[in-house]
């Protein structure tokens, strides 16, 4: 669920990113009926899904081709930022062969 800032639809200058309502007569702060929902513990993600990529895979940081071979099912590779172009291309080719999902493919 995405929580939006109170009254963000009324003014263009108010972004929709969540901020806690602070006004004295604020319907949202007082949690009145019909007001925007506030983040609470009840909205928490199930334990089995926490920390995963939105695609449902566990992220594993990969620096070279040999680390790519150690991935299990349900894991996806994220190529480290320090890896250069040549090695990144090799990792992506190997991932395509083994049908492993690469989260940050870029233009390769």
Overview in brief:
This protein is an alpha+beta fold and 108 residues long.
Tell me about this structure.
With 108 residues, this protein is an alpha+beta fold. The chain has 2 domains: 1-44, no CATH class; 46-108, no CATH class. It has 2 helices and 2 strands; from the N terminus they run βαβα. It has helices at residues 65-68, 85-97, and strands at 58-62, 75-79. The chain has a two-stranded parallel sheet. The radius of gyration is 21 Å and the shape is elongated. The mean pLDDT is 94.
The SSE string, one letter per element, is: EHEH
Unreliable stretches (pLDDT < 50, length at least 5) are none
The percentage helix is 10-25%
User: How large is the share of residues in beta strands?
Assistant: 5-15%
Number of domains: 2
Mean pLDDT, to the nearest integer, reads 94
Which tags fit this structure?
108 residues, alpha+beta, 2 domains, elongated
List the SSEs and their pairings.
Elements: E1 58-62, H1 65-68, E2 75-79, H2 85-97
Parallel strand pairs: 1-2
